[in-house]
Amino acid sequence: MAKERILITVKTYPTLSNKYDELVCTAGFREDGSWVRIYPIPFRKLDYESRYAKYQWIEIDLVKNTSDPRPESFRPYNYETIITHDTIPTGKDRLWIERKKYVLKNVYTDLSKLISEAKDKEICTSLATFKPAEVLDFKIEKVARDWDAKKLAILAAKANQTNIFGQAENPFEVVKKVPYKFSYKFKDEKGVTATLMIEDWEICQLYWNVLQRHDFDEMKACEDVKKKYFEDFAKTKDLYLFLGTTRRFHFMAPNPFVIIGTFHPKPETQGRLF
Question: How far from the centroid of its chain's Cα atoms is residue 75's Cα?
C-alpha cells in the first residue's frame, strides 16, 4: 500500500496500555490540509530513527480504524516502518508562515458550531484548529499522583515474564504520571465560555523540566508552566488551540473536546508585504 505523507502537529502525553505498555495519540495534517489521527503508536518503543518530532513530515502506511467512527481516525499498518523526513523549524517569521499553510487552512471560532459538527454522525468532526476570542484563565488542579495500581501490576507482571525468558536487557519503564491537570478557560467569538484540559506532551514535559530546575518544588514548577502558557502564549502570542475528542466520550459528553496541542506564532505585524 502507498505510504501517506503527514505533518505531525500533535503528540499527547503517554497513557498506559495493557497491550502496548504505553500509547501516544498522534495527529497531524496531510498535504491537502486535512486532519489525521494516528492511533495506537507505542512511541517510546519506536526505533530512534522512527521517533518523529512535532512539525516533522513522516511517511506511514495507514489503515482506517473500523472500530472508531470518527472519520479522521486511522491506525498504522506497521508502526515499525515509519519513515521520518524534514522538519519545519521555527524561530523566523517565514518558517511560521510555512507551518500556517497547513495548520490554519480551516480554523473554527464558534465552539457551538464545532460541537454540533462533532455530534452530527454524518460529519463527526473530531479534530480541529480553534481560535479563542479571549483566554480568560489558566487553571491548575491536583489529580492522582500515580497511575492505576491494577494497570501497573499487569505491566509489571509482563515485564517480569519477559525477564524470565531473557528477552529484555533493559526493561521498559512506564512514563511518570503528572500529578496536576492543566486547563485553559476561554471565550469563543460568540462569548461562549469553556474550560478544556490540555493533554499535550509538551506541557507535561515542561512541568518535569521546571520541576527539576526548582529542586522539585511543585508550586514553583506550576507557576512556571502558567507563565509560559498564560503570560506568554495567551497574552503575547497569536494563540490557536488544537482540539480533539476522545473516542469514549465523543457522542456522550456535552462538549467532547480537549486541547491536544497549541499553535502560538508571533502576532502578525501591520504592513507586511511579503
Answer: 16
DSSP letter (8 states) at residue 246: -
Is the Cβ–Cβ distance between 37 and 72 less than 8 Å?
yes
Give the sign of the dihedral formed by CA 139, CA 134, CA 71, CA 56. negative
User: Residue 158: CB partners within 8 Å, gap ≥ 6?
Assistant: 21
Element (H, E) at 38: strand 35-41
Lookup result for grid cell 504505553: 22
- Residue (of 237, 266, 242) closest to 107 by Cα position: 242
- Supply angle C-alpha 221, 223, 225, rounded to 5: 70
- CB under 8 Å to 163, separation ≥6 — which residues? 171
Q: Rounded to two decimals, what is the model's pTM? A: 0.89
How far is 37 from 21, CA to CA, in rounded Å?
20
Domains and CATH numbers, the chain: 4-91 (2.40.50.730), 106-143+179-263 (2.40.50)
Q: At what angle do helices 201-213 and 218-226 cross, to 10 degrees?
A: 130
> Looking at the predicted structure, is the pLDDT value of residue 184 above 60?
yes
Q: How far apart are CA 244 and CA 214, in angstroms?
A: 32
- List own/partner pairs for 58-64 with CB under 8 A and 24 or more apart: 58/5, 58/6, 58/8, 58/82, 58/83, 58/84, 58/85, 59/3, 59/4, 59/5, 59/6, 59/83, 59/85, 60/3, 60/4, 60/6, 61/1, 61/2, 61/3, 61/4, 62/4, 62/36, 62/38
Q: What is the DSSP letter of 105?
A: S
pLDDT in tens, 106-164: 999 999 999 999 999 999 999 999 999 999 999 999 999 988 888 787 777 766 665 54
Question: Helices H, strands E: what count in the chain?
Answer: 6, 15
Could you say which DSSP state residue 3 is in? P
